[in-house]
Specification:
The complex is a heterodimer of chains A (about 160) and B (about 775). Chain A is of the alpha+beta class. Chain A contains five helices and five strands. Chain A starts with a strand and ends with a helix. Chain B contains 21 helices and 28 strands. The chains are: A alpha+beta (about 160), B alpha+beta (about 775).
């Protein structure tokens, strides 16, 4: 089946198998390997991308379902060499160790802060429940998201 | 001591820019033209004879390039090796074929392999392979496996007993007979799944023209994997290159040599094409090693005043179906030697039975043996305190090895390097506001609310080394680490380290060390790791050894470089080397600071070599293999405060305080992060995670739907603090911080829950302390 998608501002048209998962399309067809795969049951969230502005697990969507959509992956988040405040927060607050869950965690946080610009710690912990991290114990991830929230509020 | 400007600074990690922008170099990101995808068909049975394998349908599928059975690979791969041959234990090695030949021994054992043009086709082809099994009775419990009449995994290993390891120090029977207090308990330290977020995988590319194999794989120790791959493939080490630059977590699970990586290498060689194999999460759950799984019978002898006079342990360690690479050393040396913990206990008796069962092989998982020892001791000391009506903090204080007795030789023969155990206890008591808490606990109990305070005052052995000890313990390798420091003509520095950090941040902390040692800007230092063609040699990252051993190697190499630079500078400045001082990256004549050369100027002269005397070689580079004289022994006190709802069994975390002493700290931000993550894993063992098998050997928790690694909402905020007692074992005085949290936290949490439940007469519940287990325990005592 033919699909047309815009990923990180670039429009692509490809023939894909109907069963091809979006995450495999991004990684194997577009070579955007920043979107990671950590499980096969949609628990870990490492594959989270923004689909028409909303965080989705790209392992749970067929590429054909994304036909016509605008997708942002971790590679498209920084603009003009400027890190997104969430990326900056993860760097500043040591919100990552091995970095494998990080792209998905960041994309989830970006979506969340659009909806809730001034979250409590509890709201942040709830918001990232669909993303698993095995290294950090989440404490610095929460701080990273708080940092980003503050920065985005003061910047807007 | 190199405590200058960067040592101790919370510098942001230089690993992060690539990782937060999606530009990491994980194994599955590497793409080579012509790559085929490999998938493994795994046994659904825990124990069965393979009667027949029909691969014809799979072979006929479009896009399938090849199918291999165990028999097809027998001549291409030696068995999966075990490399920790513990002596004096009647160790019996298991014949471990990468792909099973006649029999499968656990759910997940490989039975066939497909190579295809595409991952979807490979999965389809796996489904199309028809295997006929003769199912055999299975055994999953290690005590049952030793009983007569139990299913036998191997004809040549009676009673499924792989080894019986003994450590008998002192006359336990004598102290037991004269003890004023005797306690005997059975404790279970249950099985866990390490669950690194990046599954394991490999991209193996054999070049038939050159005879060279390059393999990208998820490895904590690339040189070790190169050596083992050489042993199993027959290719010389000089023709194998192992690359593992970014690795998505390991926690011990990426140390061993596994079937998957071996098979990929063998098939790439067979077909002359790159082969990529990436395991699914389900495969990770069943076919990557598990951790822990001990059943322990413990006897504690003590006096009425709380002094512990002896510990006797009989432990049954579940090794799984095969002996994994380092497996025999984990429940023996790494467990038994630490059975005195932080306490001056004179008599230690330990017997460990390593038992084979129809389960996934176990091996080193974060802490590896030390959590099992610490949990046992910290649990028993709490039970003893309650028996004697003592405060759990005071009974620990009573038994601590006092700070004036370091270095302290333990009855088990270790030499604890340095310590002040009481200081961490005092600091933690202060941070948690202990006396107020106890008062609140009493008040709340009156209201029918149950809070509990749990302690863990641990000591652990890390910086795994030295090589002589490794040899004596039967470890088939040295435990040194290497570093090469290469100064370029511009004065910029590349460091090649044999450590292979995969989240621990040594690209940053090592650069801090080098910048301090050589007086060069932090930005001028590159750290290279994870590539056997670039790094001279390395033993890898595990056992909290990278900074204590690998960092010491690079400091020693830096000092060799500096010594040579000083000779060059002295020659050019026409003074004796000892007449020069070195400060802020500049050599200058003592008493005449204007006469000097910067490190960069010396580097250029070293490479120009126009003015060097004949006895100084051109170039500026040094390698050091650091083999420490001893391990390091971090310690600390963790206190956990919980509230337990006896109606539902639910545990709420109110406070978690960790006071660790890991010696000097190079980057406090990174050490805090290591402690957080460690606590999270240990806490999760206490209350959430459980690798559960049914009686037939089916792993019931073989996905992230069923295996409860914690989510953000399931963990409390950790209050982390430190005391600093440097070690004399390395020039930086650092001990290691990778495993402290995991080792300390499990008993702190369990002790807190049990303390909360004291009014119900509950003295122990085996982990994980799920609401159901707590609810049942409360209900049993109340009825």
């Amino acid at each position: 089946m033919q699909i047309t998608v815009t990923v990180n501002g670039v429009t692509y048209t490809h023939d894909v198998e109907p069963r091809l998962l979006l995450v495999h399309y991004l990684r194997d067809v577009l070579n955007l390997t920043g979107t990671h795969i950590g499980c096969d049951t949609s628990q870990c969230g490492a594959c989270t991308v923004l689909l028409n502005g909303k965080a989705v697990k790209s392992c749970t969507i067929f590429a054909v379902q994304a036909d016509g959509a605008e997708i942002t992956t971790i590679e498209g988040l920084a603009r003009d060499g400027q890190l997104h405040p969430v990326q900056e927060g993860f760097w500043e607050k040591h919100g990552l160790q091995c970095g494998y869950c990080t792209p998905g965690m960041i994309m989830t946080a970006v979506d969340f802060l659009q909806r809730n610009p001034n979250p409590t710690e509890e709201e942040i912990r709830h918001a990232i429940e669909g993303n698993l991290c095995r290294c950090t114990g989440y404490q610095n991830i929460v701080r990273a998201i708080q940092y980003a929230a503050e920065k985005m509020r003061s910047g807007s | 001591m190199a405590v200058t400007k960067l040592f101790g600074a919370a510098i942001k990690r230089r690993e992060d820019p690539r990782l937060i922008t999606g530009r990491g170099n994980f194994t599955d990101h590497i793409r080579l033209p012509g790559t085929l995808v490999m998938a493994i068909k795994r046994s659904p049975h825990a124990h069965a004879r393979i009667v027949r394998i029909d691969t014809s349908k799979a072979r006929a599928m479009r896009g399938v390039v090849a199918v291999y059975t165990g028999q097809d690979l027998v001549d291409k791969l030696a068995p999966v090796p075990c490399a920790w041959l513990i002596p004096d234990s009647d160790l019996k090695l298991t014949p471990y074929r990468a792909v099973a030949v006649d029999k499968v021994r656990y759910v997940g054992d490989a039975v066939a392999v497909v190579v295809a043009e595409d991952r979807y086709v490979a999965q389809d082809a796996i489904e199309a392979i028809d295997v006929e099994y003769e199912v055999l009775p299975a055994v999953v419990d290690q005590e049952k496996a030793m009983e007569s009449g139990a299913p036998q995994l191997y004809d040549e290993i009676p009673n499924n007993l792989a080894f019986h390891w003994k450590l008998h120090i002192g006359d336990f029977d004598a102290i037991w007979n004269e003890a004023e207090v005797r306690l005997s308990r059975r404790l279970i330290n249950h099985r866990l799944i390490p669950t690194a977020m990046e599954p394991r995988g490999a991209l193996a590319a054999y070049n038939p023209g050159s005879g060279e194999l390059t393999i990208w794989c998820t490895s904590q120790n690339p040189h070790v994997h190169r050596l083992l791959l050489s042993a199993v493939t027959g290719l010389p080490e000089t023709r194998i290159r192992v690359i593992a630059t970014d690795v998505g977590g390991g926690f011990g699970s990426k140390i061993p040599m596994y079937a998957g990586e071996m098979i990929a290498a063998a098939i790439s060689r067979d077909l002359g094409r790159p082969i990529k194999w990436i395991e699914t999460r389900q495969e990770n759950c069943v076919a990557t090693i598990h951790g822990r799984d001990h059943i322990q019978y413990v006897d504690i002898a003590a006096r009425r005043d709380g002094t512990i006079t002896g510990v006797r342990v009989r432990a049954y360690a579940n090794m799984g179906a095969y002996l994994s690479t380092a497996a025999p050393g984990v429940p023996t040396w790494l467990f038994g030697l630490m059975l005195q913990g932080a306490y001056a206990i004179p008599v230690i008796h330990c017997d460990v039975y390593g038992v084979l069962t129809n389960t996934t092989p176990t091996d080193a998982y974060r802490g590896a043996g030390r959590p099992e020892a610490t949990y046992l001791l910290e649990r028993m000391i709490d039970i003893l305190a309650r028996e004697l009506g003592m405060d759990p903090a005071e009974i620990r204080r009573k038994n601590f090895i006092p700070k004036d007795r370091f270095p302290y030789t333990t009855p088990t023969g270790l030499q604890y390097d340095s310590g002040d155990y009481e200081a961490t206890l005092n600091r933690a008591l202060e941070l948690v506001d202990y006396s107020t808490l106890r008062r609140q606990q009493a008040e709340l109990r009156q209201q029918g609310r149950y809070i509990g305070i749990g302690f863990s005052t641990y000591v652990e052995v890390c910086g795994l080394a030295p090589s002589q000890a490794a040899g004596a313990m039967g470890f088939q390798g040295g435990l040194w680490e290497s570093a090469t420091v290469r100064v370029h003509p511009t004065g910029k520095v590349t460091v090649f380290t044999g450590s292979n950090p995969h989240g621990q941040g040594e690209e940053t902390t090592f650069a801090q060390l080098v910048a301090d040692e050589l007086g060069v800007p932090f930005e001028d230092v590159e750290i290279v790791h994870g590539d056997t063609e670039m790094v001279p040699f390395g033993m890898g990252t595990y056992g909290s050894r990278s900074t204590a051993v690998g960092g010491a190697a690079l400091v020693a190499a830096c000092r060799k470089v500096k010594e040579k630079a000083q000779r060059i500078a002295a020659h050019l400045l026409e003074v004796a080397p000892e007449d020069l001082a070195f400060e802020n990256g500049r050599f200058f004549v003592k008493g005449a600071p204007d006469r000097g050369m910067t490190f960069q100027e010396v580097a250029l002269q070293a490479y120009l070599a126009w003015k060097l005397p004949r006895d100084i070689e051109p170039g500026l580079e040094a390698t050091h293999f650091w083999d420490p004289v001893n391990n390091t022994f971090p310690f600390g006190c963790h206190i956990c405060v919980v509230e337990v709802d006896p109606e539902t069994g639910k545990v709420d975390f109110l406070k978690y305080v960790a006071v660790d002493d890991v010696g000097n700290v190079i980057n406090p931000m990174i050490v805090d992060g290591q402690v957080h993550g460690g606590i999270a894993q240990g806490l999760a063992q206490a209350v959430y995670e459980y690798a559960a098998y049914d009686a037939n050997g089916q792993l019931l928790s073989a996905s992230l739907m069923d295996y409860a690694i914690p989510k953000a909402s399931m963990l409390p905020v950790f209050t982390v603090d430190r005391t600093v007692t440097p070690t004399p074992v390395n020039p930086m005085g650092v001990k290691g911080a990778g495993e402290t949290g995991t080792i300390a936290s499990t008993p702190a949490v369990v002790n807190a829950v049990i303390d909360a439940l004291a009014p119900f007469g509950i003295e122990h519940i085996d982990m994980p302390l799920t609401p159901e287990r707590i609810w049942r325990a409360v209900r049993e005592r109340s009825s």
